[in-house]
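Practice problem: predict the structure.
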Amino acid sequence: MIDLRSDTVTRPSPAMLSAMVSARTGDDVYGDDPGVNALEAEAAHLSGKAAALFLPTGTQANLVALLSHCQRGDEYIVGQQAHNYKYEAGGAAVLGSIQPQPIEAAEDGTLPLEKVAAAIKPDDMHFARTRLLSLENTFGGRVLPVAYLAEAWRFTRERQLALHIDGARIFNATVALELPLSSLSCYCDTLTICLSKGLGAPVGSLLCGDADYIQRARRWRKMTGGGMRQAGILAAAGSYALENNVTRLQEDHENARWLAEQLQALGITVSQHTNMVFAQLPPEQVAPLQAWMRARNILISAAPVTRLVTHLDVDRAALQQVITQWKAFLAAQ
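Answer:
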């Protein structure tokens, strides 16, 4: 099966599974699982932050991040299409009584700072207290410019806001920019990193920040049900991913670029950013194309704008099959 629906569908490699099987474990709630401790220490080192916390999912990592920044009645400013606003079931509002203030992102994925400034509430009892700016990097595969991150950092310092980065795919950004993670994470107070997307781990995310913040986050992780026990088995996959699967993300970017070129040669309007290709389809082709591909063991989430995501389980030969079948589909129309 060739699966281009997302990079969340990756499966652990034999080498990663071997690392998991041989992992030493303790009890992470007691803080004595050596695998979790090593993973958190490595994430803190790579991000240049004082501490890190291992969580089961990216959604929980973002929720805990917001709960640790904001109190009931506080507000965070976020993109209208941001994952931690639109795609995480309203968790911050429902579980934390934290009000989101969404604004439209620019074409490059940035939140225009003049719009952010206009959205900040006055210090008045009628309004929620604006505490946090949340950005997403990458956003729709787009890498946020370093100059923008630096400007956003200065902006939040001037306005006494914290700055959080939903960095689910931030290593795609570092690879595209050929920079270490610390060169991006230096422009935020906190960031999340997803291990189960392009990095290929079966589960897990990391939240990085200063020591006091991570201590608060550890309590919120427990309260929201994320305190795992012998989690070193899972942490071993994350450590393997950080050691072996970061630089190889460049292959995904190159494969996505190749796929975009091939689709464009078929007359399809496409855009491509890092490991994501967006193909524009006539509405009448959406359902038939999805069924055609599914019948040929190719999974896509067809839509008027179809997102195709490359990852470590899809090589160039598999993408060639996708193009062959797409050509056949168009010929049969």
